[in-house]
Amino acid sequence: MPSIAKAATRNLLLRAMSDDDFALLAPHLELRSDRRGHIMFDREVATDRVWFPESGLGSIITSSPDGLRSENGLFGRDGFAPVSIIMGSDRSPHMAIVQVASECQVMPAAALLEAISASASLRAILLLYAQTLSVQTSYTGLSNAVHLVEERLARWLLMSQDRLDGTEVPLTHEYLSIMLSVRRPSITSALHGLEGNRLIRAERGCIIIRDRAGLEEFARDLYGVPEAEYERLIGPLR
């Protein structure tokens, strides 16, 4: 018998699967809780597990040999990690950390590989998610190149709220500076700018979104295309 009913999961990708495909995974899924800062997988280290978040946020981080770090991907209940597993690689040049404390359905990578070898439709939907993540990361690169810090922060807050419940994004200045690859004073200035426009309210360890429509307008045209691609291929994010 499946360990979890499909209707009980909050992971949108699992819910979008056919009943037969979900049944291939369900016996192997085990719910676990991870605190902020937990490393899901490390760069160039073989991983034997796959995470399907039910809540919280995970960041895919690129780091240089000199220790510089930048977030290039954000995921939560919309998907799974690492996508390298379904590409035939047991490791990634990136790392993934828990950014907002999460609950995840975790399963052995070997069991997932066995399931996708038995089901072309399961492989297909996981590859569709990989496509949406690729679009997201490409737009993150473009945003980092052309947007002001305030606009990048607005986009990032919208992406985070898409994957969380409610209007609160529980993150500190320190984590935001890592995610956006800027110094903490730049984050403080950007938060003050968004607060001045009555788009958010910043509290200790938490940002409250007050005006989502205004935040979308402030983020300009680099928010929306990856989200539309996810909805086209898998379903609504929110």
UniProtKB/TrEMBL annotation:
It holds the Pfam family HTH_Crp_2. Coiled coil: none annotated. One of its GO terms (biological process) is regulation of DNA-templated transcription. Keywords: DNA-binding, Transcription, Transcription regulation. InterPro entries: cNMP-bd_dom, cNMP-bd_dom_sf, HTH_CRP, RmlC-like_jellyroll, WH-like_DNA-bd_sf, WH_DNA-bd_sf. CDD domains: CAP_ED. Residues 147-213 form the HTH crp-type domain. GO terms for molecular function: DNA binding. This is HTH crp-type domain-containing protein. It comes from Croceibacterium mercuriale.
